[in-house]
Amino acid sequence: DVKVTQSSRYLVKRTGEKVFLECVQDMDHENMFWYRQDPGLGLRLIYFSYDVKMKEKGDIPEGYSVSREKKERFSLILESASTNQTSMYLCASSLLADPARIGNTIYFGEGSWLTVV
Amino acid sequence: DAKTTQPNSMESNEEEPVHLPCNHSTISGTDYIHWYRQLPSQGPEYVIHGLTSNVNNRMASLAIAEDRKSSTLILHRATLRDAAVYYCILRDGGSVGGGFKTIFGAGTRLFVKA
Q1: Is the pLDDT of residue B112 over 80?
Q2: How far off is chain A from B16, nearest CA to CA, in Å?
Q3: Of A61, A104, B38, B61, whose CB count within 10 A is highest?
Q4: Residues 6 or more apart in contact with residue B28 via CB below 8 angstroms
């Protein structure tokens, strides 16, 4: 069975702290994603990665960075957490899409609820 | 980037069919239409996808307009467990290396009444 595992389900951090959200997938997928989800705003893409050490900005990268040192692991980093980063964070993965954009399933983790106080 | 438009919410009675609409008037010729749903306190899960022809699977059916500018997800008999947020998305192509961005909107929240 396919699996995307997020290391922490619930976190509470203080303003200014450095926060690491870890995500691991066991499907040998090339693509991995980080989204945040806020009420009424749907899922917004923060960063994605299409290969080890490769990353691209999504729609809202400000205040975040990512790391992809191994194929199965994609980390989201909040260098200095702020209260407006309180949110639910979702990690996802999918197989590499070919240039013809064939349909391709995205698998999500269960989410990490981050509260910054 | 091609975008989708969905109603904010819809309501259905249990055991009745549900038709969830999605508009994607700027879809490109090779964009696939995907539907995902998100149950409470969970990450989204795949429901169905298609390119031009209507598609059926054990979860739902997908009806795609001939001009591909809209599509409809059909749940044939809604159950209480189908209460979720449904997302219609387009697979948006290509950065260097073959990767792609995937944009989710706010989706449609489906309420199912017993």
Answers
A1: yes
A2: 27
A3: B38
A4: B2
